[in-house]
Amino acid sequence: MSNITFTMIKPDAFANGHSGAILDKIIKAGFRIVALKLTSLSKEKAGAFYAVHQGRPFYDELVEFMSSGPIIAAILEKSNAVEDFRKLIGATDPAKADAGTIRKLFAENVGRNAIHGSDSDENAQIEGGFFFSSLERY
Ligand code: CMP
Which pLDDT value is given to residue 74? Predict the structure, then answer.
């Protein structure tokens, strides 16, 4: 168990104006913002971030979507961060997400699903390092 997770508010949620409401839910759920930036991913960067999914049928669409507009990237701190954050965002497919979760409230479908959350402590470290230097963490 670690106290750090990584998240991105994805291009659909940013473009639909949900960033403020999503950050409010994250903070009210007890997560502390360690690092935060509004940025965007090139196709190359999106492909590298999701390299673990290379070869899966949704990979090309995922890379296209994740490089289609601005995102908000953040490192978050809380005890049991990875597991608690995945509960807060809900299932990958919003149709299967519990009521009140961020994906249930704001996601369009399994591809355009509003938000990313790390799936393990190890990946939280790797993904945070993809976006943030030590000087950008508080
Ligand atoms: P995320 O948690 O960011 O990690 C991988 C992403 O692949 C996932 O969210 C979805 O947005 C995306 N994706 C697209 N289609 C699928 C699918 N059929 N199954 C799982 N993930 C998918």
Answer: 99
Question: Residue 61 CA: which ligand 1 atom is closest?
Answer: 14
CATH 3.50.50.60 fits 4-136, yes or no: no
d(CA 115, CA 129): 18
The structural domains of the chain, with segments of one domain joined by +, span 4-136
Task: Tell me what pLDDT residue 1 has.
Answer: 62
Give the confidence band of 82 by pLDDT, cuts at 50, 70, 90: very high
Which residues have C-beta atoms less than 6 Å from ligand 1? 53, 58, 62, 92, 110-111, 113, 116
Enumerate the active-site residues: 116
Q: Where are the beta strands (DSSP E) in the chain?
A: 4-9, 32-39, 71-77, 115-117
Record the pTM.
0.96
